[in-house]
Amino acid sequence: MNASTAVGAARVASLRPRTGPDPRDWIGFLEDQMPPDWLPGEWDPRTGNLTPLPDTGRFGVVTCSGAGCGSVIEQRRMCERCIQSRQGAISATDVDRGTPAKGSGAYSQRDCLLVRDGIRCGRNQRAHGLCLTHAALFKASVKHDDVRAWLASTSSKPKPFVPCAAKGCPVSAENLGGSPPPCANHAYRLRSKRQRGEVVDEQGTREWLADPSEPRVILRIGRVGPRLQAELRYAIQAHLFLKRGPVQVDAYRDLINKAIRWKTASLAETIAHPDNRPNQNSRSVQRFILEVLEREERSHAGYDPHTENLIHLEDLNLRGAVPAGNEAFRMPPLDLGRIVQPWLREGYRNWLLTTLPRREDARIGYRVAVLAAQTLIRGPDRGEDPRSLGPAQMSAVIGAMNRRWPNYGGAKGVFRIWRQILETGHRSTVWDAVPRSFSYNPRLHRPPTHARTFREAHSPGRAIPVAAVAHLRNNLQALGQYPNRDMAIAMLAVLIDTGRRPSEVVSLRRDCLKRDRHGDWILLYDNHKAGRLQLRLPIGQETADAITAWTGTSGGSGPGPRWLFPSPMKSRTGLPATYAVLRAALRRLLRDVPPLQGPVKDLHGAPIPFDFARVRPHDFRHSYAQRHVDNGTAPDELRDLLDHEDVRTTMGYYEVNDARKRAAADLLAPLTYDRNGERVGLSAGRRALASVAVPYGGCTEPSNVKAGGDACPIRFQCAGCTFYRPDPSYLPDIERHLVELKTNAAQARRLGAPPHAVANFEGQVADFQRIVDRMRTDVALLPEAEQQAIQSASEVLRSARLAAAPGRQLPLRAKGAP
Fold first, then answer.
1. pTM confidence score
2. Domain 466-507+553-651 in this protein, CATH class
3. 159 close to 176: Cβ distance less than 8 angstroms
4. CATH 1.10.443: which residues of the chain?
């Protein structure tokens, strides 16, 4: 028993014929869901025949593409007669010229090449330029593997031409024992008609051979019983409604013939029959039929996911990364009985049926709910009384989740879904008895690891080094030849240059390039993650050239007008490429690109090549952000470039490795000043040990250092503190603060504030101005090379501080503000 048969046998139990008082109950249920005017012009309810119209796209029925033919055929583009007439075959001249012999199994209009005593074989060529009989003798020959040599040495005699019994057939008959004798093609078609019951006796055989022209494709549904008719019609209607591609008429005809032969009462029994051995195409159709009928059988039996403990996700029409019909990913129904607490079970059910998440998220939420149920059951009341819930129970559930999903990559999605279940429950009436204290607290309940907090001390992060990015960008033409090479080069160029997410790159539209009012290039893209469309990103000329080169190459033949990078898969015609296409292109490039010598050397002093195997498509987004960080781009500006809502998300892209931070700190340590503008240089080690970073410099006040900078005795009025220790890396922050202080002082005077309030602002302005003037003067007296080094070191330390304490040093403007 094959896999499809086993699956079908396992499902037959739920699809038994009805034995209730009304035997037409199941049939009537299906008929009620069919449109009253089903397939007009194709379905004939009087005869029970379905005659699909060709070339509509609904059925796998087309008109033969042969010139002047017009026959209606299934699946193929050309009928058998036109294939025969166009089939190439070799002539005697071709043999003399040494043309390679072909081994095609189709007929040719030419005669066999065997000639004896001036008499040529009268049968048509079938293989190697020979008829079927002489081709078999040639293949059996052990002395010759060349047609010319065999023709010169064989003693075989020519065969006379015997016309095929089918009217109008120009091919010679081969089955001479038949009465009348047909050619091999008509003999095969005759056997098929006899198996299907369309030709049952000798009289029918003679009638068909007298007019063997291709009839219109007909699906004779009326040949089976009422239940099978209803199931077949409903399955075809579901196939059309769900847009699963053209209906394969031959697969449904095969099921009708098998049901008649095996005398089965339903499609499920026919599919589960031990002798059912479908091919790949029919297996897919049969799997779809089972899924459709299973769903309707549950609906007919009164199945309601709002009350049942078994939840069939396929009944909810959820979205998913994997097609629902793929049997390899079919999973058993969700058993809500494993969630023993009624309030938690209904909370999960409410979230599932209210939000209709992706299928993958629905299963993750189920696993989380089961884990929470198993955790709460250890409590004194087994977690069944929702009034006893509180922060302690939530912490226990979070602890179990941390142990179950111990890494950030998997836990972040799990925590997101658990928060959604909690929030949906508290907003609805199903959790009226659940206290609000049983909620997710972002300060206390976090995933077990975090990208920045738990990064290894010397890890470079996800950003690819600048040299490696430039090496890949400059060697895109090294990508090996394969069908999608030109599109892959353009796709990778956009990925590397723009820092967009992979999903944003593959979904670019064909008209994504625009110019702004200054004549510079703008890329229009969609942020699918946040649901913001037609965003504008400034890009360089090189990126625009890559896009225009691709559109110029593909404009005449391949992609349609909608997507810049259309999917190369026939099943996704009219849709954009997927992440898998982009990832495969990057893997090919990383395999084909020349090696790049890295900065690290082995024990013998030879440089170790850069490891490109760890590069992923999303890493280029981090590299794009890091380039802007190194260039001094402010966090709010980088937030806009990356299209983040929260600047804290942007801070996750700020990465400064320890070596750069140590070198920058060592360079700026001697340039430390006090509140009076006097240099009080500290060693880098002493500075790190005895000071803490505050908004506009360092602080050496002992109690504040011990508190990590959160216990300033004078409320961060640094300019008046003897423990204040700024250096040149804080100059932009101090100057920005100076502007604020001057503005505040002017507003205080305008409002008539008391003198002591104005004096406070003016005193801080004077102190900060003195420090700024002294640092600017000292740096200006240094050689130009040292000034450049100090400027670079300051940028490094500012980036490091921003990454450690996002949003603390700079006053960030609201997104979209001028």
1. 0.49
2. mainly alpha
3. no
4. 466-507+553-651
